[in-house]
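Input chain follows. Return structure tokens only.
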Amino acid sequence: AAKMGESQLNCKLLLPPLAGKARALFFENDAVIHESMTSEGYWEMEVNLSKKEWHRIKRNSGLDLSLYIE
């Protein structure tokens, strides 16, 4: 579940292999709290970042990241 504060977003994501660019952008922003890989090759990630950065990663990755929130 996503928890939205004033300007921070903390959520768990299940990213498919095609979301490698988004994954890299989360790491570039030091937003990754925890990451593991499923047996199907998906990345389970917990991220914490500003809403501004979330929207920038969403835009730069070309993905609707809200589809991947667990």
